[in-house]
Specification:
The chain is α+β, with helices and mostly antiparallel strands and about 140 residues long. It has 3 helices and 8 strands.
Amino acid sequence: MEKFKSKTDIWLIIFLGIALGVPFFRALYSQAWGLAIFMLIINAFVAHIFLSTFYIIENESLIIKSGFLVNIKIDIQSIKKISDSNNIMSSPALSFDRIEISFNKFDAILISPKDKSRFIEAILKINSDVEIKYKSNKI
């Protein structure tokens, strides 16, 4: 089993820290306890997503986890192509520096492993037929 953390964009942390932190502290300051508790729950949920977004290669499967919302298992033999992507579509990725994994006939998912080269190498060890379109690939 090999686990890969998601790359995290610092600007995303700053943006969410401001967007979620300011209302929380304003609610505390104004003693709006209901709103403060609600904001605390939202902050905890976002923190949970950040701490639990990762990708596991285990046996012949790629497991993609992001909080309790995303738990996807992909047969690595079904992967057709891995390519660079800066697509902003919602995905289990904490960065816009992403790779797109195309699998089965028409399926695709965007992820952002911190160590893309090592991730790609691990996939290729299991399925050497995967087409790689990754500009920084040194494989």
